[in-house]
Amino acid sequence: MGQSEQEQSSPSDPGLPPGQRVQRGWPALHYGPVPRFKPLTWDLQVFGATASAEKHSWDFEGFNALPRTTVRADLHCVTRFSVLDSDWTGVAASVLLDLVPPDRDVTHVMVWAEYGYSANLRLADFAAPDTLLATHRNGETITAEHGFPVRLVVPRLYAWKGPKWVRAVEYMRADRRGFWEERGYHNRADPWREQRYSYQEEPGDGPLR
Ligand SMILES: Nc1nc2c(c(=O)[nH]1)N[C@H]1C(S)=C(S)[C@@H](COP(=O)(O)O)O[C@H]1N2
Ligand SMILES: [Mo]
Question: Where are the annotated segments for Disordered (predicted)?
């Protein structure tokens, strides 16, 4: 039996991770209220273990002047819906790493959002070529409920690892759990390995709890 052309996967279309279903449209899902954007005080900071030991920040204008890329990627929520084939445009996380190099001992980052939401990532996942500080989806500015002005997109991990309303990136010399990782979700969050819950963690997957 052959697959129809539409169902066939190609190297750029990895298909659906196990236990996920395709979601039409684009639901908004988050804990707590949608923050109001304040252009005059908004900034995006990089702090923690930078190579220079200094923190760095961009205001809204400065951030929007950074070079952009577009990545086609899927969003996999751990509640089992997946939004396929979005074209995300924004600043590659690797650009931030180039502009503000981490100290050589940095192994992880914490990405911080408004109201203290956070997600921890291995440096390798943050540095991946498809990890993006996204400002647009399918050519349109991301709306308030989806993270305006900037949200992280990490296509290779469950979507809780992609904070909306990002305000800071903290370089870390050791791993530390973020918001959901402290509340029972898997520290690594690889959807292809169905790393949903912290009870599935194996030694080495995360810091002790
Ligand atoms: N700041 C913040 N970012 C967040 C969340 C949140 O609660 N707060 N939820 C995450 C989860 S669980 C998912 S599935 C995605 C959903 O993104 P969407 O609302 O744009 O579909 O946002 C992620 N980013
Ligand atoms: Mo989610």
Answer: 1-24
